[in-house]
Amino acid sequence: MEDLRFCRFMMEDRTPRFGLIRGQVVHQVSSDPFGPMEETGLRVPLEEVRLLPPVTPPYVYCVGRNYVEHAEELGNRVPEEPLIFMKPGTCVVGPQDPVRIPPWVGRVDYEGELAVVIRRRCRNVSEEEALDFVLGYTGFNDVTARDLQRSDGQWTRAKGFDTFGPLGPCLRLVRDWRELGDLVTRLNGRQVQLGQFRRMAFPVERIIAHVSRFATLMPGDVIATGTPAGVGPLSPGDRVEVEIGGVGCLSNPCEADL
Prior knowledge:
- 12% of the residues lie in helices and 40% in strands.
- The chain is mostly beta strands.
- The protein folds into 2 domains: 5-51, SH3 type barrels (Roll); 59-256, Fumarylacetoacetate hydrolase, domain 2.
- Strands 1, 2, 3, 4, 5, 6, 7, 8, 11, 12, 14 and 17 form a 12-stranded mixed beta sheet that branches. A 5-stranded mixed beta sheet has the order 9-20-19-15-16, with no helix packed on it.
- The chain is globular and about 55 Å long.
- The mean pLDDT is 96.
């Protein structure tokens, strides 16, 4: 099967477009990945376009404490079932967009994650059929104001700041997460996280089935599957990268939100 990587992108006219990435070239297509995606004939070097978030969800479903080592590093246990929280769609930014850090929030952490994009309406599905509803996978950085997370006692404010949800760089159009390589997070070029998806406490199919029991998932909805051990603080001037084998590298600078 062809390695299909879908992207949203802009050129100098700043009009959002759809494309497929082949090597270092973007091939424009006629629709989003829910349509026929017929090629228009326009081909542009990848380095000459600005990549956007591959989808624009109204909110992002997230899974907390889905790796044993990460739960332990924050003094928590892995829950008995997936621990779900949500981030607003206004937090989502694309590759190379800055993560803006307010000076008053205290510690702010990176959390590299695998994100799942839903292909079609999904409600009360079983684990066995859950992957049939997957459109593909992309990278996500669940940026978190850690001090606020601890002091608030719930996570909405700490997780929900504008720019606290980098997503991308593209969407790998495969059904099964086992076709992907590992997740690596780098801070200023230094590896700080290594995530092997087989070590998730709850695999993708369990997560989708669990969420679909209480919420109807719609095309384009995003589920972030949790972060491995190695989270740490961000500061203005840092650059954080979340790279997933078969997807690509999501890279974002950090700056002060003045």
